[in-house]
Amino acid sequence: MRVDPRRMRERMVEEQIVARGVTDRRVLDVLRELPRHLFVEEAMAKQAYMDCPLPIGEGQTISQPYIVALMTELLQVGAGMKVLEIGTGSGYQAAVLAKLGADVHTVERIPRLCEMARQRLLSLGLFNVHVKLDDGTLGWPSIAPFDRILVTAGGPEVPAPLVEQLAEGGRMVMPVGPARRLQRLVLVEKKDGAALSRDICGVQFVDLVGAHGW
Ligand code: SAH
Asked: Is 63 a catalytic residue?
């Protein structure tokens, strides 16, 4: 790339993310560091720091940088936490969680994306990410409970297995909506065994496809 990716990331963070109110320093620092252009196809590298989602093949997208920042901030991830992500896609969000020191488990249903993300994460030396090919609406029962769960595809409701697999005191962030591509970002907190949901904002994600999705 002719333009310095480090400068592009700095601008991305200031103009798209800080400007919209994200303040978590650790999240901002990770987004300044992580080479987002390595998570898209080479022909798209120049667009990687633009204020929009981008295609990653198979009809799927890497989320807009601001949305990645917002969801990560809402999740309040601490080092050493066990985190489940549904919808690995490019692996970018998983890499953000890994850079925050989490023990990341991420599930993708499309074989090609799963394999590409696995290789990309390994080549970046992010060994604290475990990638599985499966229907993520079923969670990852053998690893549960999770301190944090992040769903990066939109479904009609919060899948019951994910609520079950969320630890007491845990937080989950997910786009939920009555129709495809029309969702509200929801923050779920589990307290005394009950799941309390809070509406955050409107979002547009690709479909969560599976037993507890579309
Ligand atoms: N987090 C990704 C973007 C995700 S796009 C990133 O950082 O690039 C949404 C992804 O969810 C797509 O790759 C899609 O294939 C996947 N997906 C949809 N339904 C799924 C399911 N039930 N289980 C696992 N992955 C799913």
From this structure: yes
